[in-house]
Amino acid sequence: AAAAARLERVKRRQHALIGRRREALGRIRREPELVTAGPVEFLAHALVVPTSEPAERRRHDAEVERIAMQVALAHEEARGADVRDVSTPAGARAAGLTDWPGFDLLSERPGGERLAIEVKGRARSGEVELSENEWARACNLRDGYWLYVVYNCAGPRPQLQRVKDPFGALIAQPKGGVIIEEAEIVRATGEAR
User: Fold this and answer.
1) H helices of the chain, where?
2) Taking CA 129 as the corner, what is the angle to CA 127 and CA 132, rounded to the nearest 5 degrees?
3) DSSP string of 67-113?
């Protein structure tokens, strides 16, 4: 008998909860209709800054680079190229190259044209840095070396800028590797078309 009474109380509580839930959902659904324009009142300022957490920065940078590589690969494949990712020692060796060839993609286009493509990604915009190894390869390969910079990787429409022979086409500042300003990349992109 005691258990039956407790069971009955539990059932009443459950029934009451169901009713309160229905009522709360009804209020939420009506809220947009209740919003009206009125005087604007300032509540707070918010400053959103990138995280300084190293692990989160590395994850974010890796995601930007992944998107940039996807855009570059899609661009080359749309031109009928056979493209191989050589950005890792294993990928480079599989393509018959040294462990660190100085570029990320090896693209072999129909007709035999072979491109060494260094890919850089930026969440929005900004300068890019080529390592000493990448800059040396650009110097040695000249017309066969391309720099693909993908801007706005954090947005809905990444934008690809392509520079043929960056060693000859860009003005760079030495810094271990070299730093190339965004305006230089955009200027040289127009010349490479």
Assistant:
1) 2-34, 54-78, 89-94, 132-141, 166-169, 182-192
2) 160
3) HHHHHHHHHHHHTT-EEEE-SSHHHHHHTT--S--SSSEEEE-TTS-
Q: Which two tokens stand for residue 189?
A: 């992109």
- To the question of pTM greater than 0.85 for the whole model, the response is no
> pLDDT by residue (tens digit) across 134-192?
999 999 999 999 999 999 999 999 999 999 999 999 877 766 778 888 988 988 887 65
The radius of gyration computed from the CA coordinates of the chain, to the nearest angstrom, equals: 28
Q: CA of 52: how far to CAs of 45, 56, 124, 129, in Å?
A: 21, 8, 18, 21
For β-strands 145-151 and 114-121, DSSP reports them as parallel
Sheet holding 173-175, edge to edge: 128-130, 177-180, 173-175
Contacts of 50 (CB under 8 A, 6+ apart): 57, 60
